[in-house]
């Protein structure tokens, strides 16, 4: 059962990372021509071209947000692989720096974009993205601070939170995709469901992160020397 859970988790992570890669590549291909050739208004307007048009007005900011996003989704899974962490600690440290730098750029630009780029979901979406950008940045800071203090268990927990919030952007695309596909039945417009989609994705990922942390928690001792439950020791080792 435990193996099944871990396998389901890794499958989910790979799937969401792939979605993350696709959305970044697609958006990059759309905004680079704007940077090189200048802005041209779309000839046909639909719900999709309207969204593309929003980002076409902010090509540089979008690129600064999504290129580190690509680094984040590609490097993230390796940071959480026990084998790499345990056998190649130097790689884990180097990957950690990359994760931290890209994460900080993503979080800061996400906060700026929350207010600078018109949100299809209005205020509801702005509050969700601004709040979770801040929480994401705070989690990254805590993960960094805790490892500097050699508090491995706590470092691991904050890193899981940050990673889960970052990956939520892919889940949000799935949720909003379902809202789009069912809008004929529900009657909901993108303005109504976009914000809800953002909240659902971020909150779901926060719950999943807390669930996983609780299930695999390393025991923290008073002296901050990490000890392990039998289950978490096995997870840490393999
Ligand atoms: C804390 C995590 C993140 C927050 C709060 C956040 C927030 C935002 C915001 C506010 C926007 C502009 C508004 C909108 O999409 O409607 C945006 C756009 C975007 N973000 Fe993020 N972001 C985060 C992480 C990431 C990551 C890790 C990736 C990499 C996969 C990513 C990829 C994108 C892309 C591709 C866009 C352009 C819109 C699109 O093509 O769908 N973001 N993000």
Automatic annotation (TrEMBL):
Keywords: Membrane, Transmembrane, Transmembrane helix
Residue ranges of coiled coil: none
Transmembrane segments: 12-35, 55-78, 98-117, 123-141, 162-181, 193-213
Domain of life: Bacteria
Name this protein carries in UniProt: DUF2306 domain-containing protein
């Amino acid at each position: 059962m435990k193996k099944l859970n871990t396998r389901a988790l890794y499958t989910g992570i790979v799937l969401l990372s792939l979605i993350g890669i696709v959305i970044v590549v697609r958006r990059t291909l759309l905004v680079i021509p704007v940077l090189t050739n200048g802005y041209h208004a779309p000839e046909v307007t639909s719900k999709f071209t309207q969204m593309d048009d929003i980002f076409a007005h902010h090509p540089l900011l979008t690129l600064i947000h999504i290129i580190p996003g690509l680094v984040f989704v590609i490097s993230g899974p390796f940071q959480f692989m026990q084998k790499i962490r345990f056998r190649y600690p130097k790689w884990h440290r180097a990957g950690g720096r990359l994760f931290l730098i890209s994460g900080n750029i993503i979080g800061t630009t996400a906060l700026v974009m929350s207010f600078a780029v018109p949100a299809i979901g209005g205020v509801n979406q702005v509050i969700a993205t601004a709040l979770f950008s801040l929480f994401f940045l705070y989690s990254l800071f805590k993960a960094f601070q805790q490892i500097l203090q050699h508090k491995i268990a706590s470092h691991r927990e904050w890193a899981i939170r940050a990673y889960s919030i970052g990956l939520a952007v892919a889940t949000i695309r799935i949720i909003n995709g379902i809202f789009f596909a069912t809008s004929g039945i529900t009657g909901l417009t993108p303005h109504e469901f976009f914000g809800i989609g953002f909240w659902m994705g971020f909150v779901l990922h926060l719950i999943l992160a807390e669930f996983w942390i609780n299930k695999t928690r390393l025991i923290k001792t008073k002296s901050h020397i990490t000890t392990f439950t039998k289950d978490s020791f096995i997870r840490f080792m393999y």
